[in-house]
TrEMBL record:
The keyword Membrane applies. Residues 221-403 form the Major facilitator superfamily (MFS) profile domain. The keyword Protein transport does not apply. This is MFS transporter. It comes from Teichococcus oryzae. GO terms for molecular function: transmembrane transporter activity. PROSITE patterns: MFS. The chain crosses the membrane at residues 20-43, 55-77, 84-103, 109-133, 145-164, 170-195, 222-241, 261-280, 287-306, 312-336, 348-367, 373-394. Pfam families: MFS_1. Keywords: Membrane, Transmembrane, Transmembrane helix.
Amino acid sequence: MNKETSPTLPAAMAQERGNVVRLAIAQALAGANATIVFATGSIVGNTLAPDKALATLPITVFVVGMAASTLPTGAVAHRYGRRAAFLLGTGCGILAGLLGALAVLLASFWIFCGATFFAGVYAAVVLTFRFAAADCVPPERRARAISTVMAGGVFAGVIGPQLVTYTMDIWPPFLFAATYLAQAGVAVLCAFILLKVRLPVPKPSETGRGRPMAEIIRQPRFISAVIAGVVSYTIMNLIMTSAPLAMRLCGISQENANLGLQWHVIAMYGPSFVTGRVISRFGAPRVVAAGLILLALAAVVGISGISVGHFWFSLILLGLGWNFGFVGASAMVVECHRPEERTQVQSLNDFLIFGLMVVGSLASGGLLNTYGWEIVCWVSFPPLLVALATLWIVRSRPVPAVS
């Protein structure tokens, strides 16, 4: 943004800050959607599923919704602007809450899966808030803008679990029915916040095709960023999806499971207050490597025991590792595209991440029910080693001059 596209520099900077703050608030509200699904999805699934091996299928469907929606919402953002995509996503969030409540009332497993699909669409759109923040600031402030918006997730880490705790028993005997209605209400509030976001509609010069996608995805830094993002999110999802049900099977109360998930989500987003500055100082690849190591430590703690403390500490390390890995990988992605390529490249990145997450999410239920919690943790190590290896390969390569 410069003097040619805004009346004054102070006004332009005020608009930048306003957009980033609103997106951070929206992240706090909308992030409760995913937290509620992860806190309740496997438990409701275990209650309603015709086969206990399908207990985590609703969460897998949630991830499918994320993957299936990234390219279409990217096309909407490219053609009509990001705000149109945001409002489409919040509409899906409202629908998800209403369908979730209906599924519990009717004891319908398949309606519940439909609810989590729309919740996944909503979650995918929410994750583009970070890229929207990067779009509205100069290149030197992009990492900080991304981390500021992601920091809004700290409040999501409180809002989501507390909504579950205080609403799950309001409508007996329909456990969690009121929770999903509350989630729909939070999505409505988020829509009002997003109406105030003033992101520019794409200019004609920014709606061109840019470079061929094959040329972009052949960049070693882009390949490394995608692999790091995929592994960070997949491992986090694999362990987090199984953890609430594993705690329940180990005799741990739902309240303690909710608190464990709350601290996990706070750990996911809390570091975002400083992650941008850390990336600016040490570089995104080093931050991503630290995140991958923390994810490995989370698996080690999970293998070490099944007490409340073990589960909580593992989930906290899992959240910290995800933050460094995912935010760092996102910062690497925005270094690999030109302005006219951003929505296509960013949506492709998220499509690859969420598409491959489906495998981990689908596997988690079968692994947990068939082999137990320890094996869920053990399978994390090979992909983490692969991601670290790709970072090592590109460590000395210069950042592409495309911004």
